[in-house]
Amino acid sequence: MFNLFPREPAFFEMFNEAAQNMVLGSRRLKDMMESYEDVDRKAREIKRIESAGDAITHTIIRKLNQTFVTPIDREDIYGLASAIDDVLDCIEAVTDRMAIYTIEKPTHEAIQLADIIHRACEELGRGIAQLGKTTDLNACFVTVNSLENDADRITRDAIARLFEGEKDPMAVIKWKEIYESLEEGTDRCEDVANILERILLKHA
């Protein structure tokens, strides 16, 4: 794998660091939804994780600008780093809204969606750890795609029930935004999987 390319292990190490930070952020989101207390503190912790992700992304981009020959295409390095960062942005957006809107407790669907994001991030974390070592991550891509489809269905049903049963228009607005941010998080996970798959196909 990649044996025709000059080795620059720093990129693979930084991608793995970024991926594990993404997994940590998703775990904190899942924990917050399942144990909904001390929300402001938990939101600040997720913000700290997101800021750490920004720093890793900036380091990758700086390294990219300083490296003449890269182990994978430059646009793929930039795309993968940005896509991982986008997942954390969505996770932070969810926790921000939960805190700002003073949500009393998460719905069953919100807990489900947070769990899906975490499972997708874990799958991606395992896949990214194999970057440069294998060309067979099909199971990872299938799993992330399936999880994204589940999230689409749950979000669609949750928003439909929200409009049918919720009498408070402000609650409708708040929860619609939260559901959409959660669903966007799964979309961004699928973006990471698609870029990872593209990289592997190029170097198969």
Q: Characteristics of this structure?
A:
single chain, 204 residues, mainly alpha, Methane Monooxygenase Hydroxylase, Chain G, domain 1, disordered N terminus
Largest sheet report? none
Runs in which pLDDT lies below 50 for 5 or more consecutive residues are 1-6
Mean pLDDT: 92
Name of the CATH architecture? Up-down Bundle
How many runs of DSSP E, i.e. beta strands?
Answer: 0
List the quaternary state of the chains: single chain
The CATH H-level superfamily is Phosphate transport system protein phou homolog 2, domain 2
Separation of the first and last Cα atoms = 7 Å
Q: And the CATH topology? A: Methane Monooxygenase Hydroxylase, Chain G, domain 1
Shape verdict: globular
Strand coverage percent: under 5%
Structural class of the secondary elements? mainly alpha
> How many distinct helices?
6
Level of helix content? over 70%
Q: What is the strand and helix layout of this fold?
A:
Blueprint (H helix, E strand, L loop, with lengths): L8 H26 L4 H28 L7 H27 L7 H22 L8 H28 L3 H34 L2
Helix pairs in contact: 1-2, 1-3, 1-4, 2-3, 3-6, 4-5, 4-6, 5-6
Describe this structure in words.
By secondary structure, the protein is an all-alpha fold. It has one domain (9-202): Phosphate transport system protein phou homolog 2, domain 2 (Methane Monooxygenase Hydroxylase, Chain G, domain 1). The protein has helices at 9-34, 39-66, 74-100, 108-129, 138-165, 169-202. Helix 3 (74-100) runs antiparallel to helix 6 (169-202). The radius of gyration is 18 Å and the shape is globular. It starts with 8 loop residues before the first helix and ends with a helix. Mean pLDDT is 92; it is low at 1-6.
